[in-house]
Amino acid sequence: MSQSLIVFEPSGKVLHQVNNKISPFNDLIYSIVNDSHTELNPGFYTTLASQKRFYALKKAGIYAAVYLDVVTTLDSDKVRQCLLDVLRTYTVVTEEDETDSLKLTKLIDYQFNQLTKLKTGAAVTEKAPVAEKSTKPEPKEKAKKKGAKTMRKWVNGEMVEVQESSILDYSEGKGDSTDAFSGAEEAISVDNSNFQRRDDLVLVSELQDILGEESDEDEDAPKTMTSTFFGKVSSYFGGAADINDVSKKFYDQLISKNIAPPTATAILDKIKANIGKKSVTVTEFKLVLTEELTKTLTPNVSTDLLYDIKRNSAGKKRPYVISVVGVNGVGKSTNLAKLAYWFLQNNLNVLICACDTFRSGAVEQLKVHVNNLQRLNANSATESKIDLFEKGYGGGDHVVNTAKLAINHAQEEGYDIVLIDTAGRTHSNAKLMAPLKKFGDAANPDKIIMVGEALVGTDSVEQAVNFNNAFGNRRNLDFFIISKVDTVGDLVGSMINMVMATRVPILFVGTGQTYTDIKKLSVKSVVDMLTR
Ligand code: GDP
Description:
alpha/beta; Profilin-like; Rossmann fold; 3 domains; eight-stranded mixed β-sheet; 20 strands; binds guanosine-5'-diphosphate; receptor; signal recognition particle binding; GTP-binding; GTP binding
């Protein structure tokens, strides 16, 4: 089967490649240079050459491109999303540490494998819309037509034809006019089987399968002891060995899973101190490490949050206020919308407050989410309501005033929860971080949730610490939501980095781009992944 992926500069210089097959891409580069390709979306090209279908996506001056057998039928939207993920991965990892080619290869290989699995119809992390499970209110003319339908949309000031999409990527139109967010017309895919019912509560299920997926090559191979890290290290030492030597092997393993070097050192120093002897077997060491990692990740908080909110509603105090913070592009508004959907399923009334009054397009982006959620809610058996509260754009006290007005409005109109979106900001820029304290003091949220990306490695420590400290001495973050876990395979170390640095628990992980793509963390499977 012929397929490959590269990341390259407009000059033709290849920055990263999956497989060694670069030469076929000459046909694609030729078509781009000679303008003989088709532009499917702005910056997203396709061409056909030498029995291959090529796709290329250009963003921030670099291209990611794939080719697949010409007989392959794959929704170009899925290809585009994969290339977007790949470019983002490339940028994040190389900005963080341009020498970490192993991490880059692992992440991009994983993303490419996910795409090629879609092609072969194998089980994949990305769910195809499932007709019988979907509660989407399909307009009759759209029902049953999958994938290839095109629609018109304003993007960057021009009308373009795009493929109908069920994902929640409204970031394309950021910074444009409201029309860019005409996604409200699109079909919405949700899979309520991601939730479980217990008594009268709808609960988010535990993450089981996604993280454990293996790459294509490994899929059929039985998991023997010698194929795992643990097996290899056990046979390397043969029996008891110097604890520092054993620790060194585990250090390399933790680093390879995206755990930041200082975090890995801190964990392993603690393990060595706990064991307290010079000689140790790999089994003993792993046992103590497993216990420590499990303890670090364990708090099971999601059910408590729901009870907390329900209790608050019964007490008829002010609405429960949750604000979401994080750096730009990590998935704040998407995951805020996922929370809103979950709350609606629990018959709670939700007011979403647009407090990113800074970035042009942010309010409209939330409007799309709220429209989608209203449509979904109208077609479900719930008795809840959702609306958007916004006062447009502005600086200074505008954010704080908007939040206060929203909370008052919610109280008057019988909303149980106010979900406040905040502007994304660079965690290392003190000037941008400072307003968070003022916002926290004025809105006094019941919970502050930071959305962090699973993709980020070493930088996740500083991100988590800076956001945790941003609200002053008396206030911390309450939870993390770790987004895009579906894009990192078993490189799950960022979770450990963030939790270790702050002791803030993980509420949920984001596993995709639909409103039901949130999961509770399975501590056991994450710890297994880090130590097996
Ligand atoms: P914000 O700028 O932080 O508000 O980020 P957005 O909510 O606009 O999300 C940025 C991009 O990340 C969008 O394309 C989302 O669809 C995507 N995204 C968010 N969460 C996830 C997730 O859990 N998995 C994947 N694959 N994509 C996600």
